[in-house]
C-alpha cells in the first residue's frame, strides 16, 4: 500500500500545495482562501511581481510553521477536505485542534497578516484592510 503522502516528490508537492489553502485561510490573507482568491487578491491589490514573489515565499514559510503545529493526521484530514473542494471553515472542527494548537494558529494568523501587510505599500495596505473588513462583515 502506498503511503498517504505518495512516493513521488511531485505527490508530496501537490499535498503541500493542498495544505496551502489552509495556510491562506489561517494566515496570509484569511479572507482570501485558495489559489483563485489569492490570485484575485493579487489583482485587486495590483501587486508587483516582486511583491508576489515575496508573498509566495512568506506563504511557504508560514506553511512550514503550520505543519509544525498540525499533527500528520490533522494534515491528512485537511488535505482530503481540500481535495473535496471544501473550505477550511467547513472542516476545521474535524481537525479536533487542542487549545494550544488553536492559540498557536491564531498567533500565526496574526503574524502572517502583519508580515503580509509589511510587503504592501501604504495604499495597498488601506485597500487590503478594506477588502478584509468587507469579507469579515459577510461572515456573520
Q: pLDDT under 50 segments (min length 5)?
A: 20-33
Helix content: over 70%
Number of helices: 7
Tell me the strand percentage band.
under 5%
Q: How widely separated are the two ends?
A: 44 Å
How many beta strands in the DSSP annotation?
Answer: 0
Shape: globular
H/E series: HHHHHHH
**Could you describe the largest sheet, including whether it forms a barrel?**
none
Oligomer: single chain
Structure description:
The protein is mostly helical and 140 residues long. It is 74% helix and 0% strand. The model is unreliable at 20-33 (pLDDT under 50).
Topology (SSEs and partners):
Layout: H1 9-26, H2 34-45, H3 49-69, H4 72-83, H5 88-91, H6 99-119, H7 122-137
Summarize this entry quickly:
This protein is an all-alpha fold. Helix content is 74%, strand content 0%. The radius of gyration is 15 Å and the shape is globular.
